[in-house]
């Protein structure tokens, strides 16, 4: 009997806009580096709390003792993204995690950008880096990071990010850093609406002029904010597996993304830290299909929202949108 097959989600062209470099290297690359260092590396099945996650997270940058170690990890990441159908990746980079061993923020950033460019040529994946301030820790070096971002604006760096677990994050402290980046034409992409409620999202929009939000799912708690995000086309880069694994939502089935999508918000699906959560970007799309019961046209809208990333070149944007349309036209795929 003829059986309708479902479209293969790996083949759906995607923009991956919310992934942290150090939490996204493929496991085999980290394990190989750890072996060279004589250390055992493994990813636990569970994190009892968020602090144990941060402790584990911090071990990986320390494995990179040379610029070539770091470059190798960056190249491996781009190759693993290519295998997931990603055409544009925008990893959040924190050169400050490597500079104690590898030199200045500028030198470390250059190594990352060069490796992305090289692997991008090999794979066809365009990579833009979101140079990211950790708002829990980096107040003293925030402007330094913004200046590095500004110097590489349009040459590998596509935005200034803010990320922190404490929300609202008293983001007005970072206004001057945001202004430095914005003067160079870079957008601000802020973590908000993850641990903090709707007020944390409003804070990022109003205090820093953020034009994209990393997470943002807690907008669901405020109808007015939902309307604002939809009207202003603020893209929210959501990460259902991460939210579940860190205990922020109890079940992926209950994630607000489908409701926010139907309310008109531009949402992308992302892995956040695929190394640590053992789930790549395609797994998030599988959740949209299996746990949220969304149709393929609805699922495609997550991929299409990625085209709103301002750092993406027009050629990649066209490739993404045409690829999504072609995917939807497929009757079935193996
Ligand atoms: Zn994140």
- The general outline is globular
Mean pLDDT: 96
Helix content: 40-55%
Distinct small molecules bound, one entry per kind: zinc ion
Question: How does the helix and strand content classify structurally?
Answer: alpha/beta
- Uncertain regions spanning at least 5 consecutive residues: none
Q: Tell me the β content.
A: 5-15%
Q: Main β-sheet: number of strands, strand sense, barrel status?
A: 7 strands, parallel
The ordered H/E elements are: EHHHEEHHEEHEHEHEHEHHEHHHH
How many helical elements?
Answer: 15
* Computed Rg: 19 Å
Strands of the biggest beta sheet: in what spatial order?
3-5-6-7-8-9-10
Straight-line N-to-C gap: 16 Å
Number of strands: 10
Short description:
The chain has 334 residues and is α/β, with parallel strands linked by helices. It has helices spanning 27-37, 50-57, 67-82, 99-102, 105-123, 142-151, 175-183, 198-208, 223-231, 240-245, 257-262, 274-277, 281-290, 296-305, 314-329; strands spanning 14-16, 86-89, 92-93, 126-127, 129-134, 157-163, 188-192, 212-215, 235-238, 267-269.
How is this structure best described in words?
This protein has a domain at 17-127. Helix content is 45%, strand content 12%. The protein contains 15 helices and ten strands. The chain has helices at residues 27-37, 50-57, 67-82, 99-102, 105-123, 142-151, 175-183, 198-208, 223-231, 240-245, 257-262, 274-277, 281-290, 296-305, 314-329, and strands at residues 14-16, 86-89, 92-93, 126-127, 129-134, 157-163, 188-192, 212-215, 235-238, 267-269. The strands form two sheets. A seven-stranded parallel sheet has the order 3-5-6-7-8-9-10. The protein has a three-stranded parallel sheet with strand order 1-2-4, sandwiched between helices. The mean pLDDT is 96. Bound molecules: zinc ion. This is Adenosine deaminase. It holds the Pfam family A_deaminase. Its EC number is 3.5.4.4. Residues 13-327 form the Adenosine deaminase domain.
């Amino acid at each position: 009997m003829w059986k309708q097959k479902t479209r293969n989600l790996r083949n759906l062209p995607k923009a991956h806009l919310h992934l942290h470099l150090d939490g996204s290297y493929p496991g085999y690359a980290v394990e190989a580096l750890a072996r060279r260092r004589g250390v055992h590396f493994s990813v636990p099945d569970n994190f009892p709390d968020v602090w144990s996650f941060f402790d584990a997270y911090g071990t990986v940058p320390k494995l990179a003792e040379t610029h070539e170690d770091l470059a190798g990890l960056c190249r491996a990441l781009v190759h693993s993204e290519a295998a997931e159908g990603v055409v544009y990746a925008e990893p959040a980079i924190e050169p400050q995690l490597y500079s104690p061993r590898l030199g200045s923020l500028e030198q470390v950033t250059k190594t990352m950008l060069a490796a992305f460019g090289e692997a991008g040529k090999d794979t066809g994946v365009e990579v833009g880096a979101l140079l990211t301030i950790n708002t829990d820790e980096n107040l003293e070096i925030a402007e330094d990071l913004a200046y590095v971002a500004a110097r590489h604006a349009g040459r590998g760096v596509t935005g200034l990010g803010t990320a922190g677990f404490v929300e609202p994050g008293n983001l007005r402290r970072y206004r001057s850093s945001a202004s430095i980046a914005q003067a160079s034409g870079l957008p601000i992409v802020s973590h908000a609406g993850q641990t903090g409620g709707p007020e944390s999202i409003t804070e990022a929009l109003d205090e820093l002029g953020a034009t994209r939000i990393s997470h943002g799912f807690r907008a669901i708690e405020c109808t007015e904010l939902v309307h604002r995000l939809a009207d202003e086309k603020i893209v929210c880069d959501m990460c259902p597996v991460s939210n579940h694994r860190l205990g922020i939502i109890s079940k992926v089935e209950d994630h607000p993304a489908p409701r926010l999508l139907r309310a008109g918000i531009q949402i992308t699906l992302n892995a956040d830290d695929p190394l640590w959560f053992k789930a790549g970007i395609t797994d998030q799309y599988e959740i949209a299909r299996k746990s949220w019961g969304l149709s393929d046209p609805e699922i495609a809208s997550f991929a299409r929202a990625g085209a709103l990333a301002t750092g993406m070149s027009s050629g990649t944007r066209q490739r993404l949108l045409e690829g999504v349309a072609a995917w939807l036209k497929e009757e079935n795929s193996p």
